[in-house]
Design a protein that fits this description.
The protein contains 9 helices and 5 strands, in the order H-E-H-E-H-E-H-E-H-H-E-H-H-H. It has about 220 residues and is mainly α.
Length: about 220
C-alpha cells in the first residue's frame, strides 16, 4: 500500500493538479490506514508499504518504529534513491526489512546499495536497470550477499511478462509486483493475458521468447504520436 503523501513531502505529483489537498494525508492517518489493512488481512497476510522515496531518514525511522506492531513484510523506498547512507541508517535502525530501489541503474548502483546495507530486499526494474543480462548480474550479486530479489514491474504487459520470467529464473526470486490499478496496456495488450490465480500465483508463458503475442487492435487503440 502507498503511504507517505503528507503535506511536507515534495516528491509526488500533487503540485500538478488543482486540488492538492486530495493527495495529502497526515502521518497519523497513514498509521491508521496501515493498522486497518493489517486488521483486514489478518496476522498472516503479507503487508508491505511503499513510501516512494518521500521521507527523510530520521522520519523514516520514526514512522518505521511506529509501524512495527503491524509486522510489515517490508518498507519500500523510504528515502531518496541516491541517499544510500540514509537508507542504510534506516535499515540498521528498524527490524522491518527495507526494499528498493526501483529506479537504480546497473550492477554498480545496486552493488553500492547492497554493500552499504541500504536494502534487505533488492528491487531492480529490468526496464531501468539494464535488461535481462544486467538484471541477472544484479540478482547474482544479491544472492551472494544472502538477499532476495523482488523485481519492480509497474508498467504494461510486456514488462510484466519479462519481469515474471526474470523472477522465475532467479534462484533468489522472492515475488513479483502485480499492479492492481486499471491499466489497459497491461490488461488488453496481450492476445492471451496472464492469469493471476486466487492464491497469488501466475504461470509464465512457455512458448519461445517472452511467450506472448500482442493484440494489434489494442496497439492501434492506444497508439500515440
Amino acid at each position: 500500500m502507498k503511504i507517505g503523501r503528507n503535506p511536507s513531502t515534495g516528491t509526488h505529483l500533487r503540485q500538478l493538479i488543482g486540488q492538492a489537498e486530495f493527495c495529502e494525508v497526515d502521518p497519523s492517518e497513514d498509521l491508521a490506514r496501515v493498522a486497518a489493512v493489517r486488521q483486514a488481512l489478518g496476522p498472516q497476510g503479507k503487508l508491505m508499504v511503499d513510501v516512494n522515496c518521500a521521507w527523510s531518514p530520521d522520519f523514516a525511522i520514526e514512522m518505521g518504529r511506529a509501524m512495527e506492531a503491524q509486522k510489515l513484510y517490508w518498507i519500500e523506498e523510504p528515502v531518496a534513491t541516491d541517499d544510500i547512507d540514509g537508507s542504510a541508517r534506516v535499515a540498521d535502525a528498524l527490524t522491518t526489512p527495507i526494499a528498493g530501489y526501483e529506479t537504480e541503474m546497473g550492477l554498480y548502483g545496486f552493488r553500492q546499495l547492497i554493500d552499504c546495507g541500504a536494502v534487505d530486499i533488492v528491487q531492480p526494474d529490468i526496464a531501468w536497470s539494464g535488461g535481462f543480462s544486467e538484471g541477472r548480474r544484479i540478482a547474482a550479486y544479491a544472492q551472494a550477499h544472502h538477499k532476495m530479489v523482488a523485481p519492480h514491474a509497474f508498467a504494461g504487459a510486456v514488462l510484466l511478462v519479462a519481469s515474471l520470467h526474470f523472477a522465475a529464473a532467479a534462484p533468489n526470486g522472492l515475488l513479483l509486483e502485480w499492479d492492481q490499478n486499471p491499466n489497459a496496456l497491461r490488461d488488453e495488450l496481450l492476445k492471451e493475458p496472464l492469469r493471476l490465480e486466487n492464491d497469488g500465483t501466475v504461470r509464465p508463458p512457455e512458448r519461445p521468447g517472452l511467450g506472448i503475442e500482442l493484440d494489434r487492435a489494442a496497439v492501434e487503440r492506444y497508439r500515440s504520436g
